[in-house]
Structures are given as C-alpha cells and as structure tokens.
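Proteins fold reproducibly. Consider a sample protein:
=====
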Amino acid sequence: MTDSFVQWLTAALGGKVSGEIIIFLISMVPILELRGGLLAASPALLNVPILRAIPICIIGNILPIPFILLLIEKVLDLMERIPGLKKIALWIRGKADKHKGQVEKYGFWGLVLFVGIPLPGTGAWTGALVASLLHMKIKKSFPAILIGIAIATVIMSLLSYGLLGALVG
C-alpha cells in the first residue's frame, strides 16, 4: 500500500514541483515518512541522487518529531472532547498502545529499533507518539528517534538505491 501511495503521490506532483520538494513532503507524512521519501527518490521513480535525497528525507522526517513529542498528548486530549474527533483520537491512542510494550520493555533501545526497522506501523511518527504517551523524557526519546532514523536511512537507501536501482538500471 505504501509503495502504491508513494507512486501515486509522485505521479500527481511530478512536473508541478521538483523531485526534492516531493521527497521532502513525503518524508513528513505519517506512515510514509523517510521510507516513502527514499522510495520516491530512487532511480525507479524520481531519480534524485542519493547524496541529495538522504539529507532532504532526514530533515523532512525529523521536522515534525519535536512537535509530536511536545504536543501530541494535549492535542489528543482536546480531540477527545470534540464529538467528531473523539473516535480518531481513540484510534491514535490504540495504535500507540499496540506498540507500547516493545518500547516500554526495552526503553531507549526499544524505541531505536522501533523507529529504525522499516516495518508497517513503525517509524518516527509512531515512535514519537508512543514515547510521548509513555511519558519518556525528550532528552531520552529524541536521540533514540534520531538514531532510529539513521538506521532506517541506511536500510532504505540500500533497498531503494541498491535493489531498486539494480532492477531499474
């Protein structure tokens, strides 16, 4: 699903804005994040050179994280008091609750691996959500998320530019 959404978004924005802007925007979107940005940047889609794509995707993925860590709990509390948004807030809390155990059990390194291993439902957005709802200190959670993003960058660069690049090239 992520691949097809990245392809659709790339096609929809292609020709209207630069490839760099497309991958930056994709990297900021929950679920897609850096993984989607690097897939879009790959030789198979936008063909943005890897050394240009990596910093753009990292910045796009990191940018929302401090806001999530600082504000998400207050935003969810507010949403729960608004009838039309309560279901969404509860769904978001449920998503975080599903992943809390791993992060709670292993703390810092659990959060690093949760963000770093690119599997469906993981990533910096969900990691920041879980860390915030577990009341992890920002001094602990933000570095863990940064290390996780670095790991995801290496894995996705190898997949997007290595495997996909070899298949396309």
